[in-house]
Amino acid sequence: MKVAALFSGGKDSTYAVYRALLEGNSVEYLVTVVTSNPNSWMFHRINVEMTRYQADAIGIKQIMVPSMGIKEKEVEDLKVALKGLSDVEGLVSGVIASRYQRSRIEKICDELGLKCIAPLWGMEPERLLREQYALRFETIVTSVSAEGLDKSWLGRKLDEAAIEELRRLNEKFGINMCFEGGEGETFVLDCPIFRKKLRVKEAVKKWFGDWGVYEILSLECVDKVQSSPSQVPP
């Protein structure tokens, strides 16, 4: 099936693209909403301009959708953009547990006659993180805004030690390990569907007392040893 995929550059939208391809779909477009509202209910804001490097590394055409990020209106902005993609039959998203986001994506799909594909829906957060790590996703944290997540998390890779620490923070503070509750955002530097690996050349950490962002200023593409995991861990 020819599909478009909502793409923020974070771990879950990237993993959803990976899963969609693994399941035999042809991902024709990566659709990235560029919102001017840092508090958007639907879309990431941090480093969204840098997703063009990821799209190039994956080798899929990217559609950038400008939006003011006004609640509900931003959903309509996405719908208008998708309406112009007449050659696709489905829409892939990386939504895991947010009924707010899923309900609006499903509404768009219903109105446009698209199949709603959410391969990560309902997955247990720790399992999801460990699957991504096992598949050699190289992911960094680009924003934090929850108790227990301090400045040291900005730019940190989600490796085994980080996953274990997130598990402890979940037990202590109840944060969602996948940041599905708005606890943070991420950016993928490498994964099995990247033809090139990305490397951060320059970035700045901005800390505002109890939350912060890791703003990527420049990236470079580097060669990597190709490997193709054939399936998702059971």
Report on this structure.
The chain is α/β, with parallel strands linked by helices. Helices cover 29% and strands 27% of the residues. The protein is globular and about 45 Å long. The chain starts with a strand and ends in a 12-residue tail after the last strand.
Which features would summarize this protein structure in a list?
single chain, alpha/beta, five-stranded parallel beta sheet, four-stranded antiparallel beta sheet, 6 helices, 29% helix, 27% strand, disordered C terminus
Summarize the structure.
With 234 residues, this protein is an alpha/beta fold.
Write the layout of secondary structure elements.
Layout: E1 2-6, H1 11-22, E2 26-35, H2 51-58, E3 61-67, H3 73-83, E4 90-92, H4 99-112, E5 115-117, H5 125-134, E6 138-144, H6 160-173, E7 184-190, E8 197-207, E9 212-222
Parallel strand pairs: 1-2, 1-4, 2-3, 4-5
Antiparallel strand pairs: 6-7, 6-9, 8-9
Helix pairs in contact: 3-4
For the record, the count of structural domains works out to: 2
CATH fold-type name of the largest domain? Rossmann fold
Largest sheet: 5 strands, parallel
- N-end to C-end Cα span: 24 Å
Q: Work out the strand percent.
A: 25-35%
Strand order within the widest beta sheet:
3-2-1-4-5
Percent helix, as a range, is 25-40%
Helix and strand sequence: EHEHEHEHEHEHEEE
Shape, please? Answer: globular
CATH fourth-tier homologous superfamily of the largest domain: HUPs
CATH class of the largest domain: Alpha Beta
Q: Judging by the overall fold, what is the CATH architecture of the largest domain?
A: 3-Layer(aba) Sandwich
Mean pLDDT: 92
**What's the total number of strands?**
9
Rg, alpha carbons:
17 Å
Structural class comes to alpha/beta
Given as residue ranges, the uncertain stretches (5+ residues, pLDDT < 50) are 227-234
Number of helices: 6
